[in-house]
Specification:
The chain is of the alpha/beta class and 372 residues long. Helices cover 37% and strands 12% of the residues. It binds pyridoxal-5'-phosphate.
Protein backbone atom coordinates (compact mmCIF):
# COMPACT_ATOMS: atom_id res chain seq x y z
CA UNK A 1 0.00 0.00 0.00
CA UNK A 2 1.30 3.49 -0.84
CA UNK A 3 0.58 5.35 2.41
CA UNK A 4 -0.91 8.80 2.59
CA UNK A 5 1.94 10.00 4.82
CA UNK A 6 5.27 8.62 5.98
CA UNK A 7 7.31 10.48 8.63
CA UNK A 8 10.76 11.38 7.28
CA UNK A 9 13.92 11.01 9.36
CA UNK A 10 16.95 13.11 8.35
CA UNK A 11 19.35 10.71 10.11
CA UNK A 12 20.53 13.21 12.74
CA UNK A 13 17.61 12.89 15.17
CA UNK A 14 19.04 10.16 17.42
CA UNK A 15 22.48 11.81 17.46
CA UNK A 16 21.01 15.06 18.74
CA UNK A 17 18.80 13.28 21.27
CA UNK A 18 21.93 11.51 22.59
CA UNK A 19 23.72 14.87 22.69
CA UNK A 20 20.90 16.36 24.78
CA UNK A 21 21.36 13.54 27.29
CA UNK A 22 25.12 12.96 27.29
CA UNK A 23 26.56 16.39 26.57
CA UNK A 24 23.98 18.83 27.81
CA UNK A 25 22.76 16.62 30.66
CA UNK A 26 19.26 18.05 30.40
CA UNK A 27 16.13 16.25 29.31
CA UNK A 28 13.40 18.52 30.63
CA UNK A 29 12.28 21.58 28.67
CA UNK A 30 13.83 24.96 27.86
CA UNK A 31 17.38 23.64 27.41
CA UNK A 32 19.96 24.16 24.66
CA UNK A 33 18.01 22.50 21.84
CA UNK A 34 14.81 24.35 22.72
CA UNK A 35 16.70 27.65 22.63
CA UNK A 36 18.42 26.73 19.37
CA UNK A 37 15.10 25.92 17.67
CA UNK A 38 13.46 29.09 19.00
CA UNK A 39 16.43 31.19 17.83
CA UNK A 40 16.17 29.59 14.38
CA UNK A 41 12.54 30.70 14.07
CA UNK A 42 13.03 34.23 15.39
CA UNK A 43 16.10 34.81 13.19
CA UNK A 44 14.74 33.24 10.00
CA UNK A 45 11.20 34.57 10.15
CA UNK A 46 11.31 37.57 12.50
CA UNK A 47 8.90 36.69 15.33
CA UNK A 48 9.30 38.99 18.34
CA UNK A 49 9.44 35.83 20.43
CA UNK A 50 8.56 32.19 19.99
CA UNK A 51 8.09 29.27 22.35
CA UNK A 52 8.20 25.59 21.47
CA UNK A 53 5.13 23.70 22.66
CA UNK A 54 4.11 20.07 22.82
CA UNK A 55 1.63 20.54 19.95
CA UNK A 56 -0.06 23.16 17.80
CA UNK A 57 -3.15 22.52 19.93
CA UNK A 58 -1.16 23.65 22.99
CA UNK A 59 0.13 26.72 21.15
CA UNK A 60 -3.48 27.58 20.24
CA UNK A 61 -4.54 27.06 23.87
CA UNK A 62 -1.80 29.43 25.02
CA UNK A 63 -2.89 31.96 22.39
CA UNK A 64 -6.50 31.66 23.55
CA UNK A 65 -5.44 32.20 27.19
CA UNK A 66 -3.42 35.27 26.16
CA UNK A 67 -6.54 36.77 24.55
CA UNK A 68 -8.11 37.02 28.08
CA UNK A 69 -11.62 36.22 26.90
CA UNK A 70 -14.72 36.60 29.02
CA UNK A 71 -17.56 34.06 28.84
CA UNK A 72 -19.68 34.78 25.78
CA UNK A 73 -16.93 36.65 23.90
CA UNK A 74 -17.01 35.69 20.25
CA UNK A 75 -14.22 34.24 18.14
CA UNK A 76 -14.44 33.96 14.34
CA UNK A 77 -13.07 30.62 13.09
CA UNK A 78 -13.52 28.87 9.73
CA UNK A 79 -15.75 25.81 9.97
CA UNK A 80 -13.54 23.86 7.57
CA UNK A 81 -10.60 23.32 9.94
CA UNK A 82 -9.20 21.00 12.57
CA UNK A 83 -11.07 20.85 15.89
CA UNK A 84 -8.22 22.53 17.80
CA UNK A 85 -8.64 25.87 15.93
CA UNK A 86 -12.01 26.24 17.69
CA UNK A 87 -11.54 24.04 20.77
CA UNK A 88 -8.72 26.17 22.22
CA UNK A 89 -11.14 29.12 22.42
CA UNK A 90 -14.13 27.08 23.60
CA UNK A 91 -12.03 26.07 26.64
CA UNK A 92 -11.77 29.78 27.49
CA UNK A 93 -15.57 30.16 27.45
CA UNK A 94 -15.80 31.71 23.97
CA UNK A 95 -18.68 31.40 21.56
CA UNK A 96 -17.43 30.31 18.15
CA UNK A 97 -18.86 32.17 15.16
CA UNK A 98 -18.06 29.95 12.22
CA UNK A 99 -17.02 31.50 8.90
CA UNK A 100 -17.50 30.02 5.46
CA UNK A 101 -14.61 29.25 3.11
CA UNK A 102 -13.97 30.88 -0.24
CA UNK A 103 -15.11 29.13 -3.41
CA UNK A 104 -11.58 29.31 -4.87
CA UNK A 105 -9.89 27.59 -1.90
CA UNK A 106 -10.77 26.40 1.63
CA UNK A 107 -9.43 29.51 3.43
CA UNK A 108 -11.94 31.71 5.19
CA UNK A 109 -13.50 34.41 3.03
CA UNK A 110 -11.98 37.69 4.22
CA UNK A 111 -14.62 39.69 2.33
CA UNK A 112 -17.32 38.14 4.53
CA UNK A 113 -15.70 38.51 7.96
CA UNK A 114 -17.11 41.94 8.69
CA UNK A 115 -20.72 40.73 8.59
CA UNK A 116 -19.87 38.31 11.44
CA UNK A 117 -18.50 40.99 13.79
CA UNK A 118 -20.60 42.06 16.79
CA UNK A 119 -19.70 44.09 19.91
CA UNK A 120 -18.69 40.76 21.55
CA UNK A 121 -16.17 39.77 18.85
CA UNK A 122 -12.64 39.61 20.25
CA UNK A 123 -10.55 37.36 17.98
CA UNK A 124 -10.25 36.23 14.34
CA UNK A 125 -8.50 32.91 13.64
CA UNK A 126 -7.37 32.67 10.00
CA UNK A 127 -6.30 29.10 9.18
CA UNK A 128 -3.80 28.90 6.30
CA UNK A 129 -5.20 25.74 4.72
CA UNK A 130 -2.59 23.56 3.00
CA UNK A 131 0.01 26.19 3.94
CA UNK A 132 -1.54 28.71 1.53
CA UNK A 133 -2.02 32.19 2.96
CA UNK A 134 -5.37 33.74 3.84
CA UNK A 135 -5.76 37.32 2.62
CA UNK A 136 -3.94 38.78 5.63
CA UNK A 137 -3.94 42.48 4.58
CA UNK A 138 -7.74 42.45 4.54
CA UNK A 139 -7.94 40.50 7.80
CA UNK A 140 -5.46 42.75 9.63
CA UNK A 141 -7.22 45.87 8.38
CA UNK A 142 -10.61 44.64 9.65
CA UNK A 143 -9.04 43.54 12.95
CA UNK A 144 -7.37 46.93 13.38
CA UNK A 145 -10.61 48.83 12.80
CA UNK A 146 -12.54 46.67 15.30
CA UNK A 147 -9.68 46.26 17.85
CA UNK A 148 -9.59 42.48 17.45
CA UNK A 149 -6.71 40.08 18.09
CA UNK A 150 -5.63 37.91 15.14
CA UNK A 151 -4.36 34.40 15.94
CA UNK A 152 -3.00 32.72 12.80
CA UNK A 153 -3.49 28.97 12.78
CA UNK A 154 -0.33 28.23 10.82
CA UNK A 155 -0.32 24.50 11.70
CA UNK A 156 0.38 23.60 8.05
CA UNK A 157 2.09 26.82 7.04
CA UNK A 158 5.78 26.52 7.91
CA UNK A 159 8.02 28.40 5.47
CA UNK A 160 5.13 29.86 3.53
CA UNK A 161 4.58 33.54 2.75
CA UNK A 162 1.96 36.23 2.15
CA UNK A 163 3.23 39.08 -0.08
CA UNK A 164 6.76 38.22 1.06
CA UNK A 165 5.89 38.09 4.78
CA UNK A 166 6.33 34.74 6.57
CA UNK A 167 3.01 33.24 7.67
CA UNK A 168 2.69 33.28 11.43
CA UNK A 169 4.44 36.67 11.72
CA UNK A 170 1.50 38.80 10.56
CA UNK A 171 -1.19 38.26 13.21
CA UNK A 172 -0.63 39.17 16.88
CA UNK A 173 -0.09 35.48 17.71
CA UNK A 174 0.32 32.28 15.72
CA UNK A 175 0.52 28.53 16.16
CA UNK A 176 2.51 25.94 14.16
CA UNK A 177 2.43 22.13 14.22
CA UNK A 178 5.29 19.62 14.04
CA UNK A 179 2.95 16.63 14.15
CA UNK A 180 4.30 13.74 12.08
CA UNK A 181 1.98 14.62 9.20
CA UNK A 182 3.55 18.07 8.71
CA UNK A 183 6.55 19.13 6.56
CA UNK A 184 8.87 19.52 9.58
CA UNK A 185 8.15 17.08 12.41
CA UNK A 186 8.96 16.07 15.96
CA UNK A 187 6.29 13.39 16.45
CA UNK A 188 4.01 15.70 18.36
CA UNK A 189 5.16 19.31 18.65
CA UNK A 190 4.29 22.91 18.05
CA UNK A 191 5.34 26.53 18.28
CA UNK A 192 3.69 29.67 19.59
CA UNK A 193 4.72 32.73 17.57
CA UNK A 194 4.38 36.10 19.30
CA UNK A 195 4.45 39.26 17.20
CA UNK A 196 3.02 41.73 19.71
CA UNK A 197 5.32 42.48 22.64
CA UNK A 198 2.48 42.93 25.11
CA UNK A 199 2.00 39.13 25.16
CA UNK A 200 5.61 38.04 25.71
CA UNK A 201 5.97 38.05 29.49
CA UNK A 202 2.63 36.38 30.19
CA UNK A 203 3.24 33.78 27.45
CA UNK A 204 6.44 32.64 29.20
CA UNK A 205 4.57 32.32 32.48
CA UNK A 206 1.68 30.32 30.97
CA UNK A 207 4.30 28.09 29.30
CA UNK A 208 6.05 27.28 32.61
CA UNK A 209 3.03 26.15 34.69
CA UNK A 210 2.05 29.65 35.80
CA UNK A 211 5.52 30.45 37.19
CA UNK A 212 8.23 32.96 36.27
CA UNK A 213 10.80 30.16 36.04
CA UNK A 214 12.03 31.33 32.61
CA UNK A 215 12.99 34.72 34.12
CA UNK A 216 14.70 32.90 37.00
CA UNK A 217 16.79 30.76 34.61
CA UNK A 218 17.90 33.92 32.79
CA UNK A 219 19.03 35.37 36.13
CA UNK A 220 16.49 38.20 35.99
CA UNK A 221 14.91 37.32 39.37
CA UNK A 222 16.51 35.53 42.33
CA UNK A 223 13.59 33.19 43.02
CA UNK A 224 10.58 32.04 41.08
CA UNK A 225 7.01 31.38 42.13
CA UNK A 226 3.37 31.07 41.15
CA UNK A 227 2.28 34.18 39.18
CA UNK A 228 -0.67 33.24 36.98
CA UNK A 229 -2.60 30.37 35.42
CA UNK A 230 -0.74 28.17 32.94
CA UNK A 231 0.17 24.59 32.22
CA UNK A 232 3.10 22.44 31.19
CA UNK A 233 3.16 23.57 27.59
CA UNK A 234 6.88 23.16 26.94
CA UNK A 235 8.27 20.03 25.27
CA UNK A 236 11.21 18.04 26.59
CA UNK A 237 14.70 18.48 25.15
CA UNK A 238 14.32 15.15 23.34
CA UNK A 239 11.53 16.61 21.23
CA UNK A 240 13.52 19.80 20.62
CA UNK A 241 16.65 17.80 19.66
CA UNK A 242 14.57 15.82 17.14
CA UNK A 243 13.12 19.05 15.77
CA UNK A 244 16.58 20.60 15.42
CA UNK A 245 17.65 17.75 13.10
CA UNK A 246 14.62 18.49 10.94
CA UNK A 247 15.18 22.24 10.88
CA UNK A 248 18.76 21.73 9.71
CA UNK A 249 17.35 19.84 6.69
CA UNK A 250 14.48 22.20 6.02
CA UNK A 251 15.72 23.38 2.61
CA UNK A 252 16.19 19.84 1.34
CA UNK A 253 12.79 18.76 2.69
CA UNK A 254 11.00 21.72 1.18
CA UNK A 255 12.60 21.45 -2.23
CA UNK A 256 11.83 17.72 -2.55
CA UNK A 257 8.22 18.25 -1.49
CA UNK A 258 7.85 21.12 -3.99
CA UNK A 259 9.30 18.97 -6.78
CA UNK A 260 6.73 16.21 -6.06
CA UNK A 261 3.90 18.74 -5.75
CA UNK A 262 4.83 20.34 -9.10
CA UNK A 263 4.86 16.95 -10.80
CA UNK A 264 1.35 16.17 -9.51
CA UNK A 265 0.21 19.58 -10.77
CA UNK A 266 1.83 19.16 -14.20
CA UNK A 267 0.32 15.71 -14.73
CA UNK A 268 -3.15 16.47 -13.40
CA UNK A 269 -3.63 19.90 -15.02
CA UNK A 270 -5.00 18.47 -18.32
CA UNK A 271 -7.66 16.52 -16.35
CA UNK A 272 -8.55 19.64 -14.38
CA UNK A 273 -8.85 21.53 -17.68
CA UNK A 274 -11.40 18.90 -18.79
CA UNK A 275 -13.43 19.72 -15.66
CA UNK A 276 -12.88 16.42 -13.80
CA UNK A 277 -11.82 18.24 -10.60
CA UNK A 278 -10.15 21.45 -9.50
CA UNK A 279 -6.50 21.68 -8.44
CA UNK A 280 -5.09 23.50 -5.40
CA UNK A 281 -5.46 27.26 -5.74
CA UNK A 282 -2.50 29.50 -4.86
CA UNK A 283 -3.53 33.17 -5.05
CA UNK A 284 -0.98 35.75 -6.33
CA UNK A 285 -0.39 36.95 -2.77
CA UNK A 286 0.58 33.46 -1.51
CA UNK A 287 3.45 30.99 -1.85
CA UNK A 288 3.22 27.21 -1.90
CA UNK A 289 5.07 25.29 0.86
CA UNK A 290 3.98 21.96 -0.69
CA UNK A 291 2.33 20.81 2.50
CA UNK A 292 -0.56 19.16 0.71
CA UNK A 293 -1.78 18.16 -2.74
CA UNK A 294 -5.55 18.03 -2.97
CA UNK A 295 -8.25 17.68 -5.62
CA UNK A 296 -11.79 19.01 -5.32
CA UNK A 297 -14.35 16.83 -7.13
CA UNK A 298 -17.73 18.15 -8.35
CA UNK A 299 -19.64 16.01 -5.81
CA UNK A 300 -19.37 13.42 -3.02
CA UNK A 301 -20.09 10.46 -5.34
CA UNK A 302 -17.23 11.27 -7.70
CA UNK A 303 -14.85 11.74 -4.77
CA UNK A 304 -15.92 8.43 -3.21
CA UNK A 305 -15.41 6.66 -6.54
CA UNK A 306 -11.89 8.11 -6.85
CA UNK A 307 -10.89 7.19 -3.28
CA UNK A 308 -12.08 3.64 -3.97
CA UNK A 309 -10.32 3.46 -7.32
CA UNK A 310 -7.05 4.53 -5.68
CA UNK A 311 -7.54 2.12 -2.79
CA UNK A 312 -8.10 -0.73 -5.25
CA UNK A 313 -4.72 0.24 -6.72
CA UNK A 314 -3.15 0.14 -3.20
CA UNK A 315 -2.94 3.92 -2.88
CA UNK A 316 -4.28 5.61 0.23
CA UNK A 317 -5.92 8.97 -0.56
CA UNK A 318 -7.96 10.60 2.20
CA UNK A 319 -10.59 13.27 2.64
CA UNK A 320 -10.11 15.95 5.27
CA UNK A 321 -12.17 17.95 7.77
CA UNK A 322 -15.86 17.58 8.51
CA UNK A 323 -17.51 21.00 8.96
CA UNK A 324 -17.25 21.96 12.64
CA UNK A 325 -20.52 23.94 12.65
CA UNK A 326 -22.45 20.69 12.15
CA UNK A 327 -20.26 18.52 14.42
CA UNK A 328 -21.94 16.54 17.23
CA UNK A 329 -20.28 18.85 19.79
CA UNK A 330 -21.14 22.21 18.24
CA UNK A 331 -24.26 21.76 16.04
CA UNK A 332 -26.71 22.85 18.77
CA UNK A 333 -24.51 25.83 19.72
CA UNK A 334 -24.12 27.05 16.12
CA UNK A 335 -26.31 29.98 15.08
CA UNK A 336 -27.91 28.03 12.22
CA UNK A 337 -26.27 29.79 9.25
CA UNK A 338 -25.55 27.55 6.26
CA UNK A 339 -21.86 27.40 5.34
CA UNK A 340 -22.09 25.86 1.88
CA UNK A 341 -18.44 26.15 0.85
CA UNK A 342 -17.26 24.38 4.03
CA UNK A 343 -19.74 21.58 3.39
CA UNK A 344 -18.58 21.36 -0.23
CA UNK A 345 -14.93 20.89 0.80
CA UNK A 346 -15.98 18.36 3.47
CA UNK A 347 -17.76 16.33 0.74
CA UNK A 348 -15.57 16.85 -2.31
CA UNK A 349 -11.91 17.37 -1.31
CA UNK A 350 -9.43 14.48 -1.39
CA UNK A 351 -5.72 14.58 -0.44
CA UNK A 352 -3.12 12.58 -2.34
CA UNK A 353 0.00 10.94 -0.83
CA UNK A 354 2.73 13.55 -0.36
CA UNK A 355 5.81 12.98 1.80
CA UNK A 356 9.58 13.41 1.49
CA UNK A 357 10.35 9.75 0.80
CA UNK A 358 7.79 9.48 -2.01
CA UNK A 359 9.52 9.19 -5.38
CA UNK A 360 8.61 10.84 -8.63
CA UNK A 361 7.77 7.53 -10.34
CA UNK A 362 5.16 6.86 -7.67
CA UNK A 363 3.66 10.31 -8.22
CA UNK A 364 3.45 9.48 -11.94
CA UNK A 365 1.83 6.14 -11.15
CA UNK A 366 -0.78 7.80 -8.89
CA UNK A 367 -1.55 10.43 -11.55
CA UNK A 368 -1.97 7.65 -14.11
CA UNK A 369 -4.51 5.81 -11.95
CA UNK A 370 -6.44 9.05 -11.45
CA UNK A 371 -6.47 9.64 -15.23
CA UNK A 372 -7.94 6.19 -16.02
C1 LIG B 1 -5.33 23.64 10.93
C2 LIG B 1 -4.85 22.84 12.09
N1 LIG B 1 -4.79 23.40 13.31
C3 LIG B 1 -4.35 22.72 14.38
C4 LIG B 1 -3.94 21.41 14.28
C5 LIG B 1 -3.48 20.68 15.51
O1 LIG B 1 -2.09 20.39 15.45
P1 LIG B 1 -1.43 19.42 16.53
O2 LIG B 1 -1.71 18.03 16.12
O3 LIG B 1 0.05 19.76 16.45
O4 LIG B 1 -1.98 19.78 17.85
C6 LIG B 1 -3.98 20.77 13.04
C7 LIG B 1 -3.57 19.37 12.92
O5 LIG B 1 -3.40 18.79 11.89
C8 LIG B 1 -4.44 21.50 11.91
O6 LIG B 1 -4.53 20.93 10.68
Amino acid sequence: MIPFNLPHLTGKETEYIAEAILKNGKLSGNGEFTKRCQRFFTEKYGFKKCLLTTSCTDALEMAAMLCELKPGDEVIVPSYTFVSSALAFVREGAKIVFADSMSRNPNLDADRIEELITPRTKVIVPVHYAGVACDMDKIMEIAGRHHLIVVEDAAQAIDSYYKGKPLGTIGHLSAFSFHETKNIISGEGGLLGINDERFIRRAEILWEKGTNRAEFFRGEVNKYGWCDVGSSFLPSEMTAAFLWAQLESMEEIQSKRKMLWNEYYRLLKPLADQGRFTLPDIPDYATNNAHMFYLVYPNLEERTTMIKKLRDADILAVFHYLSLHSSPYYADKHDGRDLPQCDRYADCLVRLPLYFDLDIETVRHIAEIIAR
